[in-house]
Amino acid sequence: MARDAADPAAARKGMSGLGSQIWIAGLAGLMTLMLALQIWAGFGVISSTRAVADGDALMRETDSLLHLLQEAEVAQGRYLRLQTAGALDDYRRTRGSAPVAFGQLAHLAEAEQADSGAGCSVMTAMLEEAFRSMDRVIDLRQARADDEVLMAAEARQMQAVDLARQQIALAQTQIGQRISARLSAADENFTIAAGASLLGFSFAIPSAIVMFRRLRRSREQERHLRLQVEAANLQLESRVAVRTAELLRANRALADANAVKDRFLANMSHELRTPLNAVIGFSDMIATEMLGPVGNPRYTGYARDILASGRHLLALIEDILDLSRIQAGRIDIDPVETSPRQLAAEAMSIVSTMARDAGVEIVLEADQAPDQARLDARRVKQVLINLLTNAIRYGSQGGEIRLGIAPAEAAPHAVRFVVEDGGAGMTEAELARALQPFEQVSADRQRRAGGTGLGLPLTRLLVLAHGGRFDITSRPGVGTRVVVEI
Length: 486
Hints:
Blueprint: H1 2-82, H2 85-96, H3 98-112, H4 116-142, H5 147-199, H6 205-287, H7 297-327, E1 336-338, H8 340-350, H9 352-358, E2 361-365, E3 373-375, H10 377-394, E4 400-407, E5 415-421, H11 428-434, H12 443-449, H13 455-465, E6 469-475, E7 479-485
């Protein structure tokens, strides 16, 4: 019987020990589960926070691209209105920063989400098309294209820019949705972790405190990121507003400067021409002895020198004023029916004395010249005189200058003028320098040939203002060839 009584006690003790083991095992399992749940939720919050940061960086980059597109539009519009080199440089500088921005966008898209690259590639392609359409409009404006062609190009530009903006807006919407989803996921993870901490509070207070602090820091980071996004948006809006105000002020200043320049040109044209015409007229009267003998023949020689110098100075002033008008986009072209062959003959007659003194012969090749063409006779004659004068100055003594006239190949109603000389020629660097206003190929040539450095630049601008084509090639020791199609 003692053995029988001991057996239930031993059984109860064994069951109690087994229950303790089960409870401890259950407690350990529960704590392990709580710990695992807390760790999983904590890493979920951290991952979501990082993803939100990546999405925010991508969102800021798309804002930068939108701002870059707006700046490019403003710079292009200013150039189309003003037609100045400074405005074109501003556009090119803004346009040149696009490839770097595209590369940064691709990098951030790859970091933000694996499938974001495809959407960003589409956005990049549309932005590149928008920039190419802007470049096309500028090229057409520089080439003086027809209004219909220019308007069609501008319409394509507006369509491309609108599509790019729509794609940016779509991408920003998608990014914002992903950020919101990640923030929601972070909130859900936070809720799960907090519940697990409360459930395991009585089992692992220190662990719960540590995890709770960690989760609280994560939530503060999320709130901080939200504040950063809001601050960045406000800052961007402020920058756009400031930039817009600056552009408006700059446009007003440019308009005022152009008005002042126009008044200056009008005043200078009158103030310089009036006394020069008087000097030229009176010296011509003295040189030709219109009112009777002067007396000493040396006086008539001096009068001829004064007359030649006055005409040279008047021509120089005319060139400078024409150059200023063309650069300001205010040159007047008045095409009428005229004979290209007659214009060439008149230009050759004007430079004949200079050619004879230089020992150069000018040969006219006009067998294929059209009888009539719509040209601005005064401007075309000015172009031919400038080209022939340059050829005479830099040609070889005893050499030959050929002036050819024929219908243009590309445009049936245009005329093609070709001036060729067998002079010293120029290198590519010298040719580029010769096409810049007031520049000389070299100081040595300037001393030997003279000139102001306006001939070729002014000729090129006159041809382009006429809606024509200007092409020049030169080789040292061979000569220079200029082709003009008007």
